[in-house]
Amino acid sequence: MDANRPRVAPDATTVRPVVDDLSTVEALKADPTLSGLRRSLEAYYGDPAREAAMDAFYAPLVRPGDLVFDVGAHVGDRLGSFRRLGARVVAVEPQPLCTRALRALYADDDRVTVVEAACGACTGPVRLHVNSANPTISTASADFLQAAEGAGGWEDEIWDVEIEVAGTTLDTLVAAHGVPGFVKIDVEGFEDAVLAGLSRPLPALSFEFTTIERDLAAHCLDRLTRLGFTRFTVALGDEMAFALDGWRPAGEVAAYLRALPHEANSGDVYARARPA
C-alpha cells in the first residue's frame, strides 16, 4: 500500500449509505421482475463481516471526500463500500434491471450518481449480451463469449438476450464529474475497451481479469503502462487481500497472471500512477 496514503478505517463520522436499511434489499429480492438479481442481492448484502473486510481493503485506496468511478457497478456492493469510506461515487452500469436496483438502493443518497451506460472506447450505442440467469457476467465483448464457450467452469452459462445500450468513456465521465481518485472496472472482458477510452493517468484503478482471457489482461497492463501507471498488484477472486507482496512492475504482474491455474478463474489487477 502507498505509505503516503493513510489508512482510513470507517468510524462514526463516515457517511453510512441508506443500504444499511435492508428493507429495500428485501423488497428488491421479492420483486419477481428482478429475479435474476436475487442471487447477487443475497450474496452481497447483509453480511457485516464481508463489508468490514471490503472497507479495510479499499481504505488505503479510497479516502473520505474522494471521487470514485464504479464501472460495472452491478448491484452496488463495492459502491456501498466506497460510500462507507466517505467517497462520492459515479456508478456506471448498462443493465436496466441493475440500474433500477441501484437507484432504489441509493435513492436518498445525493453523493451517488447512477449512469446507465456501458463504458468503452467511444461514445455511442453498445450491443450488450445479457445472461438472464446470471446477470453479473453480462458483457459487451463478443470475444469474451467466444473464450467462455466450452471453457471449464463456464459450460452452463448462457447469454440469451441482446440489448442496445448507451455508451460512454472514462474521458467523458472525467469531463462531466471530475478526476476520480480511484476507478473500479469490472465489465466481463470489455476492460481493454474501457481503458482505450482513457487518455490520462489517474491516481489508482483496478480492472478485472479472467483466466480464460489472459492475453486481454496483458493488453490492459500494456495500455496502463503507456498511460503512465507504474506499479501494479493483484487480488484473486473475491478475496479482500493482495496476492503479491508490495507493488510490482507490469511485467512481473503479467508473468504472475500467465502462471495462474485455470481454476483461479478471475480476480482484479490494481494499478497506481506513481510509485507506492
Summarize the structure.
The chain has ten helices and eleven strands.
What is the distance, rounded to the nearest whole angstrom, between the alpha carbons of the first and last residues? 6 Å
- Rounded mean pLDDT is 92
**What is the spatial order of strands in the main beta sheet?**
3-2-1-8-9-11-10
Cα Rg: 18 Å
How would you portray this structure in words?
The model is unreliable at 1-15 (pLDDT under 50). This protein has helices at residues 23-30, 38-44, 48-58, 77-84, 96-105, 142-148, 170-177, 191-196, 214-227, 250-259, and strands spanning 67-71, 88-92, 112-115, 118-119, 126-130, 161-165, 167-168, 182-185, 204-210, 231-236, 266-272. Helix 3 crosses helix 4 (77-84) and helix 9 packs antiparallel against helix 10 (250-259). The protein has ten helices and eleven strands. The chain is of the alpha/beta class and 276 residues long. Strands 3-2-1-8-9-11-10 form a seven-stranded mixed β-sheet, with helices on both faces. The chain has a two-stranded parallel ribbon with strand order 4-7. Helices cover 32% and strands 19% of the residues. Helix 4 (77-84) links the parallel strand 1 and strand 2 (88-92).
